[in-house]
Amino acid sequence: MKSIAQKKAETAAVKRLREQHQLPQADELVNRILAQDRTALSQAITLAESSSVEHAALALEIIKKCLPHSGRSFRIGITGVPGVGKSTFIESFGTHLTSIGKHVAVLAVDPSSPLSGGSILGDKTRMEKLSLDANAFIRPSPTSQSLGGVTKSTRQNIALCEAAGFDIIIVETVGVGQSETAVHGMTDFFLLLMLAGAGDQLQGIKRGIMEMADGIIITKADGDNEKNAAKAKAEYFSALHLYPPKPSGWQPKVEVTSALYNKGVAETWKLVCDHEQWMKERGFFEVHRKAQELEWVREAVSNEVVQRFFSRQEVADELKRAQKELASGKLSGFEAIQSLYRFI
Ligand code: GDP
């Protein structure tokens, strides 16, 4: 049965297609995508995220045809806890980028929380100005439940956006779960947003996330907060030196910004460009992308294998039996594992 969120996600595009009882031809959609038609791009993304087998097959054909035209963007991952200022920053950063001639796509990775059932990023109207910008494209998080599903869709969406001529892809996520690792695995530059004076623990940022960052920006550096932000910059800069150096030798940098007053936004873009140059000059850009691709293949195959294993009837029966026998004490966990291994 479909969840309410999934029902909502049946966008107008798919509904229209259903009503007409016809799906577009893959070639026609691909040609329109390559001609930078954003309606066609939205339709392709909707098809790729749809749970219908028919749509998925068409989406696969479209993605395959778009792949040779993808890969030529710079992909930026952005994370930070709710309220740190992500959407406000992306709005002013994205607007800066379109003003210098870039085409910017913003995608979100926000698996719905198993506890609240809702998403954190998608519930409010975000980036209103950027969404009206002719050179920007904003797509909220796919509504699949699991992180694996959202990650798969986002990777496909990146390829589709690149084929549609977007040269900067921003992938936004909330800094509270595992989604940052997933976003780090699909982007070229990973930017962490932090508030001044709130302490790492308060901000719920795990050590591992700081370690993944290529850059940190201190947000809301305006008014009374300006001094705190300058202090935080120095603190984070020295904290970053405590981590082992990155294989590329890149030393993460810290910037202070106020998205409300457009402060530090151009500087952040310069930081991103410096990183890109650093990586490309030393050959790490390609190495990094290839490693990400391999990791993606491993991940996708292992997800599929796990899913196929657990969907087998004999495995489900054995699990049920093991559950009963574990409860009654007839079987130990070790024995249950051995009995399931027989089906691998
Ligand atoms: P998100 O949840 O991380 O996307 O955060 P938002 O961008 O929605 O921002 C959360 C709150 O912080 C909002 O009330 C914003 O108006 C405010 N905010 C965001 N950026 C700034 C800034 O640069 N300066 C100030 N003073 N407030 C900001």
Question: Can you walk through the features of this model?
Answer:
With 344 residues, the protein is of the alpha/beta class. Helices cover 53% and strands 12% of the residues. A 7-stranded parallel β-sheet has the order 3-2-4-1-5-6-7, sandwiched between helices. Strand 2, helix 7 (128-132) and strand 3 form a beta-alpha-beta unit. Guanosine-5'-diphosphate is lined by residues 80, 82-88, 219-220, 222, 258-260.
Features of the shown structure:
alpha/beta, seven-stranded parallel β-sheet, 15 helices, 7 strands, binds guanosine-5'-diphosphate
Percentage of β-strand residues: 5-15%
Low-pLDDT parts are none
Shape: globular
How would you state the average pLDDT, rounded? 87
The SS-based structural class is: alpha/beta
Q: Kindly report the spatial arrangement of strands forming the biggest sheet.
A: 3-2-4-1-5-6-7
Q: Report the bound ligands by name, code or SMILES.
A: guanosine-5'-diphosphate
SSE string: HHHHHEHEHEHEHEHEHEHHHH
> Helix amount, in percent?
40-55%
How many strands appear in the DSSP assignment? Answer: 7
User: In angstroms, what separates the terminal alpha carbons?
Assistant: 29 Å
The biggest beta sheet, please?
7 strands, parallel
Helical element count?
A: 15
Cα radius of gyration in angstroms: 22 Å
